[in-house]
Write a structure and sequence with these properties.
Elements (H helix, E strand, L loop, with lengths): L10 H16 L4 H11 L6 H8 L3 H48 L5 H21 L10 H12 L2 H26 L7 E4 L7 E7 L15 E7 L3 H4 L4 E3 L14 H12 L26 E5 L12 E6 L5 E5 L3 E3 L5 E3 L8 H7 E2 L2 H11 L4 E2 L3 E2 H4 L10 E4 L1
Parallel strand pairs: 1-4
Antiparallel strand pairs: 1-2, 2-3, 5-6, 5-13, 6-7, 7-8, 7-10, 8-9, 11-12
Length: about 400
């Protein structure tokens, strides 16, 4: 049996891993960029092929392994070389796609497929290039050129407006979290030196509130980290404490990239509040108590993870004022006497139809559904008994409400 090994790093290398991982994410690398480097580094292992497979499981795993084998300096060199390759590929793609678009524009006929391909390639290259050249090495002879290129690509009125909005919203969120923390309802935000030692930026750390904060169950981890230009520090003080990266109180970056950060924020903002926090505003005392009712029941003989589950369940659906409708997965409605029909639209539905197909007793509607479900057929021939593997149906389906 093959086991995956984990590279153990010294305390110094662990700090370097954080810095180099941040650098790799900032220039837009992914695991494909370092796959060949890991395979080459693994040639000294007892089983090079297995070692390469073990340590090519994501960018963070690759960097940890490379630092263990090559050291921080060697790994940083590989990261910067990969960024250079990305930049060179993007520049070549810009030239190629722009040339193609120019030819198509002046050509005799419109070629939609070639136009779409060239446009997609150009957009992707323009998105890739600014990140790939965003962090040149201080001793890189082309560093000044790369910084100028990055400014030319990103320092536009539209981009400046977007960053202004983004940074101002972060300042608003930081102040609000500071106020919640003062009442014991959140973790205080914090500004920390940039681990990449860039003097122009600080890192803002926010912790999304947890379930016992009264804001819904997000789970862990909940860290949000964002770079803040030093010139905007006035927006965040005195609401946010600033500490050195070496301070024992400094947050430890959990290696979340932008995609993961976006996922956390999206999950948090869409999670209903629990009302468990004593400082969370309660309901308006002038309103009556809310009413909660089940408006739909599923009647089924198959477990939810069964591959044929969706072909053999019947719904009992509320139509308001104590009236219920029995409907199968194909949209057919059933009456007490066994007749079935598609439900008419609201404008064409008659009182006679409603009297025949609407139930005024929930128990009777559910009983009808338990008799309908075993009789369903998928594609006109596949039956519930076949889905169950010829297991007898005892006439008592499972009922779930929603």
């Amino acid at each position: 049996m093959t086991t995956t090994t984990t590279t153990t790093l010294s305390e110094v290398d662990a700090v370097e891993l954080t810095r180099i991982t941040s650098l790799a994410h900032s220039v837009g690398l992914d695991s494909l960029d370092l796959r060949a480097d890991v395979e080459e580094a693994a040639t000294g292992e007892a089983d090079p092929e297995q070692a390469a497979d073990d340590h090519n499981a994501g960018l963070d795993t690759q960097l940890r392994y490379l630092i263990g084998v090559l050291g921080a300096e060697g790994t940083e060199t590989l990261v910067r070389e990969a960024a250079d390759r990305r930049a060179d590929t993007a520049l070549a793609a810009i030239i190629s796609s722009a040339t193609t678009l120019r030819e198509l524009r002046s050509g005799p006929s419109y070629a939609p497929d070639r136009w779409q391909h060239a446009t997609t390639e150009l957009v992707h290259a323009l998105e890739t290039l600014p990140r790939a050249v965003s962090a040149p090495a201080p001793d890189d002879p082309d560093a000044e050129f790369l910084r100028a290129l990055h400014r030319a690509l990103t320092d536009t009125p539209a981009m400046r407006e977007q960053y202004f909005d983004r940074n101002l919203l972060l300042a608003v969120a930081a102040k609000q979290q500071f106020m919640l923390a003062a009442r014991g309802a959140a973790t205080a935000p914090m500004l920390c030196d940039n681990v990449e030692a860039d003097p122009q930026f600080l890192v803002l750390y926010l912790e999304l509130p947890a379930d016992d904060d009264g804001f819904g169950n997000l789970g862990t981890p909940r860290q949000i980290a964002r770079h803040i230009p030093l010139e905007l520090l006035k927006w965040f003080l005195p609401h946010v404490e600033q500490v050195s990266a070496t301070d024992s109180r400094a947050p430890w970056w959990d290696h979340s990239d932008k995609a993961e950060t976006w996922r956390r924020m999206q999950e948090w903002v869409t999670t209903p509040t629990t009302g468990s926090d004593p400082h969370e505003p309660g309901a308006d005392p002038g309103l009556p108590a809310p009413r909660v009712r089940a408006s739909r029941y599923e009647v089924t003989y198959l477990p939810e993870d069964h591959p044929d589950f969706h072909g053999f369940f019947v719904e009992v659906i509320s139509r308001g004022l104590g009236r219920w409708l029995v409907k199968d997965v194909f949209g057919r409605c059933y009456s007490r006497d066994g007749h079935r029909d598609l439900e008419p639209s609201r404008s064409t539905r008659t009182d006679a139809w409603c009297e025949q197909f609407w139930f005024t007793d929930l128990a009777t509607a559910i009983t009808t559904a338990t008799h309908v479900a075993p009789a369903l057929k998928v594609n006109g021939r596949f039956t519930l008994r076949q889905a169950l593997g010829d297991t007898p149906v005892d006439g008592g389906g499972e009922v779930a409400d929603s």
